Amino acid sequence: MLTEQSAATVRATLPAVGAAIGEITERFYTRLFDAHPDLLRNLFNRGNQAAGTQRQALAGSIAAFAAHLLDHPDDRPDAMLARIAHKHASLGVAPEQYRVVHEHLFAALAEVLGEAVTPEVAAAWDEVYWLMANALTAIEKRLYEESGGPGFRAFRVEERIEETPDVVTFRLRPADGGPVAGFRAGQYVSVRVALPDGARQIRQYSLSGAPGEAVRRISVKRVYGEAAPDGEVSNHLHARVRPGDVLELSEPYGDLVLAGAPDTPLLLASAGIGVTPMIAMLADLAAGGHRAPVTVVHGDRSPADHALRADHAAYAGKLPGASVHFFYERDAGRTARTGLADLTDIAVHPGTRAYLCGPLPFMRAIRSQLIEKGVAPADIHYEVFGPDLWLARD
């Protein structure tokens, strides 16, 4: 992948670049938004920018990609690239935008590292960048071909369902009256809304309905944040969007999808609003007559906070090999457990394939327990709502 000369240079400079990558990405975003303020208003998540999580995710992905090229020179980290590409495709990222990013990222690199960025160093990291960018562009091109191309389509809200005090489900149909494309259980759509200040912000929400439905169904948790942009889209949807209103949706994307043979044991673990892709997965498994064991684990604050709880239990109940384990911090009652989700005394079947969705600490804890129980790391898949900080914290 990397030329021998570039690999040697990247290996020698990776510690310095890695130590400064946080400052580099901060300078990069400042430069980018100064030159292209429309990107912050209409493409990038202003809440994630304010919180700094997007910078952490970018830094983690660059460092992880470079390290992978050095440690595994004959292949590339396709799982990481696919996750990023799906997110980019849901936003409608275009190939030419990678040149804009390159311009400002390498200017930030030079600003932070100064004279250490010799022509040789710049050329080596340029090679790393374009290996990653070109790989992403190729994956995104394929995704666009499969989905019919980038862009958004108008959907009219048909029904609004108050699931919990903080979660609302919206059922939406195409405003043009046409059909909706199918999706794979676990995927998400991007939702673009016009905010009062004129910005058109985009957020991703997992599809929480059955894949065969003729409508799009999303369940949105209200996000409370101290910074003004935090939760601005979820609060807008909760406060302002009612039946008859129109939202713009992308086609479905996302790589957390059911895979494997129909006789594969599955474990679906979620916490909080991470339940949404699991509902679609359970609905799909029930419709397909899945016969292998399915272990369902969910953690929440209380039964009243457990969004889609009735659907969660009902779909699992249609699977003959399903076992259900709900954990609540309070008010657990007789049919659930008190405390945080824990696999300690839950049987995990040999050959299990696991799917996780929820806060990062929850997923890391469940992943560790699964590995201790003999589940192969390659068989553990996860979805992060927002920037993927898993790499940034490893």
TrEMBL record:
Cofactor dependence: heme b
Keyword Amino-acid biosynthesis: no
One Pfam family, short name: FAD_binding_6
SUPFAM superfamilies xref list: Ferredoxin reductase-like, C-terminal NADP-linked domain, Globin-like, Riboflavin synthase domain-like
Domain FAD-binding FR-type: 150-259
Enzyme nomenclature, EC number: 1.14.12.17
CDD domains: FHb-globin_2, flavohem_like_fad_nad_binding
InterPro entries referenced in this protein's UniProt entry, alphabetically: Cbr1-like_FAD-bd_dom, FAD-bd_FR_type, FNR_nucleotide-bd, Globin, Globin-like_sf, Globin/Proto, OxRdtase_FAD/NAD-bd, Riboflavin_synthase-like_b-brl
Keyword Cytoplasm: no
Domain (Globin) ranges: 1-141
Enzyme superclass (EC): oxidoreductase
The reaction(s) this protein catalyses: 2 nitric oxide + NADH + 2 O2 = 2 nitrate + NAD(+) + H(+); 2 nitric oxide + NADPH + 2 O2 = 2 nitrate + NADP(+) + H(+)
Keywords linked to the UniProt accession: 2Fe-2S, Heme, Iron, Iron-sulfur, Metal-binding, NAD, NADP, Oxygen transport, Transport
PANTHER family noted in UniProt: FLAVOHEMOPROTEIN
Similarity field: In the C-terminal section; belongs to the flavoprotein pyridine nucleotide cytochrome reductase family.
Protein name in the entry: nitric oxide dioxygenase
